[in-house]
Amino acid sequence: MDRSSERSSPQSPGAARPVRTVLGEIPYESLGITDAHNHVWIDPIPGADPAAPVLDQYDKIKEELKLYRSAGGGSLLDCQPGGCGRNANKLAQISRATGVHIIACTGFHRKRYYSPEAWLFTTRPEQASEYFLQELTSALEETKEQPEPVRAGFIKVALESAWNDSPLCALEGAAEAATQTGCLVEVHTEKGGLAEKAAIFFEGAGIAPKQLVLCHMDKRPDFGLHMELARFGALLEYDTFYRPKYEPETKLWPLIKKMAEAGLSNQLALATDMAEAEMYATIGNGPGLASLPTEIKLKLIKIGIQENSIRQMLGGNIARRLAGLD
Ligand SMILES: [Zn+2]
User: Which tens digits make up the pLDDT trace of 219-228?
Assistant: First the structure.
């Protein structure tokens, strides 16, 4: 590589950025099997929806991640932003104890997961983007005083069911921060709703399609729509493997197969999104985080997905996107 391109900005086309984990930067090639959307720690939030999930049993969570690691899991994206239960000090402690790379986020979740006084939902776009940029480039709020502050590796945003109920100023702030940094934006959709609207909004705000991950899309298993969004360039995240109400056998699995057959396995990212403690093997006797590198991987092989496509869906795609590549 010539020196001039080494010196150029990390956003120069084609140059891979290191991935920012809670313990520092690593090359994207070392992420291994990566859960594209999960939850490792959620502190209880006074005043939030009492039904909001809580994940705060350190020893059991540590055990869960050890199981994930020994089953072949390498990394995961923690999708709990600040203010609604994120605790990056715990994330760093757990990562250190288990060897699992954890990538933390800035951004915002649905309003119901916050205390009623949360400032982010009534703020101006400039203030929101300043906060996100601070967390991406300097330190996550709760780690500011630490000798080794943790930085965010991506932005997570959440849409409500209706566009007009979604916090537009915070969305604009997130778009601005993503445009400035080139970072990945994971978009929570309500059961896949408004995904096309989100794609148009973020494209209009100057974000490259490769920066977008549209989450929970398999709850809306419309093959035509998925093909269109994938061809647009967004990554589609699927995670209903253990959610019987979404009928994964007849919806999710055939969708994965069809997307792979259409040559779009490079646009999919699989995850298990186990925010609920009962989904954890160590806490609730659920399928657990280790299901991704074991049961899910085996079934991908069984239904005839090619090895290379499996690698892409189980981490390759999200790793490249975190590194700013297509
Ligand atoms: Zn989630």
Answer: 999 999 999 9
